[in-house]
Specification:
Blueprint: H1 3-7, H2 10-35, H3 41-59, H4 63-84, H5 89-110, H6 119-122, H7 131-150, H8 152-160, H9 162-167, H10 172-189, H11 199-211, H12 217-242, H13 250-279, E1 296-297, E2 316-318, E3 321-323
Parallel strand pairs: 1-3
Antiparallel strand pairs: 2-3
Helix pairs in contact: 2-7, 2-10, 2-11, 2-12, 3-4, 3-5, 3-10, 3-11, 4-5, 4-10, 7-10, 8-10, 11-12, 11-13, 12-13
């Protein structure tokens, strides 16, 4: 079978659609996680979703939907622990890592199912995705993109400075939960594409790559979506062509291609930041504050005070001395 014939097959067309929407949606929520310094949250939720998959295999329900439900519950739990408990965010994420993975393996064994059945969910199996899985992937990915982009001003404000966002009237707790739920949904969207154990890479690496080339949040978000799409679709295509010579899994290929993009752009980012420092090596300094005072003091050439601008109407005071009003000029040092 030639490559052209391969991509005319229905299973490859389904795989391309899933890769396209997964690569587009994953970096959207990854941008907010990176901004909040929770880049590993995708890994934690991925491990929790393993328990959801095991519940689906045990009960006979769709593993995708049970993974969505369990991952959302885990995301809400981590936000509650982070906000109200005394446990730090990294400790709470560790609890998700160990508890989720162990629970999934345990439930799989209790149901008499082989652990090998988890393989397609742990490391992805995009070429075996069904029509129903494609529809679910498209719907969930569209939800993530619409909400993540549509609420970008609010979500960015909460991620950048929660205290300022709270003072500005934003419901910080609500928007934090929105990010957590979107992260859980994204994990299940990418579950069949790159696998639960590699999903965080597709969420974070395109964002880290775009940060090397952009300087604004909006540009970073758009660039990350483009890079994620290129990595996802490109990794699938590369694995399809390489499979004529050896068995090449699409999931790891997608992640490695994304990492290769970061390696290539990192030196460019270093050079751009160096040029920016050369253009503006020193931060702007605010002028000395002046207050009004009634203490008379006429500036002279030898007074030793820093030169300040005066005008004909306002008396300024510097170091407790009043500057007599006179024509606008700068005093000599």
């Amino acid at each position: 079978m030639t490559p052209v014939e391969l991509f005319s097959e229905p299973f490859m067309q389904r795989a391309l659609l899933a890769a396209l929407f997964t690569g587009l949606a994953a970096p959207v929520i990854g941008t907010y996680l990176v901004q909040r310094r929770l880049a590993l949250m995708g890994d934690g939720l991925g491990h929790v979703a393993v328990t959801g998959v095991a519940v689906g295999l045990l009960t006979g329900y769709s593993p995708t939907w049970t993974a969505v439900v369990v991952a959302i519950l885990g995301a809400i739990a981590i936000e509650v622990v982070r906000e109200r408990g005394n446990t730090n965010g990294d400790v709470a994420l560790a609890l998700l890592f160990y508890g989720g993975l162990a629970g999934g393996v345990l439930l799989t064994g209790l149901g008499g199912r082989r652990a090998a059945e988890l393989q397609q969910y742990l490391f992805g199996s995009i070429t075996t995705i069904s029509d129903g899985d494609v529809v679910v992937t498209l719907v969930l990915a569209a939800l993530v993109v619409v909400v993540g982009v549509g609420l970008s001003p609010q979500l960015f404000a909460v991620a950048q400075d929660p205290e300022f966002a709270r003072v500005a009237g934003l419901r910080v707790r609500f928007y934090n939960l929105v990010v957590a739920v979107l992260a859980a949904v994204t994990v299940t969207v990418a579950m069949r594409t790159v696998g639960l154990l590699l999903v965080s890479a597709l969420m974070v690496v395109p964002v880290a790559t775009s940060q090397q080339l952009t300087r604004s949040f909006r540009a970073t978000l758009v660039a990350a979506m483009v890079l994620g799409t290129l990595a996802s679709v490109g990794g699938l295509v590369i694995s399809a062509f390489a499979s004529y010579q050896a068995t090449v899994a699409p999931g790891p290929t997608i992640v490695l291609l994304s990492l290769a993009g970061f390696v290539v752009t990192w030196p460019v980012g270093v050079w751009l930041r160096h040029r920016a420092r050369l253009r503006r090596p020193f931060a702007d300094e605010a002028p000395d504050e002046h207050t009004v005072s009634d203490h008379d003091h006429d500036h002279g050439p030898g007074c030793g005070h820093v030169a300040v601008p005066h005008d004909d109407h306002v008396d300024y005071v510097h170091d407790g001395h009043r500057h007599a009003p006179h024509g606008t000029h700068y005093d000599e040092h």
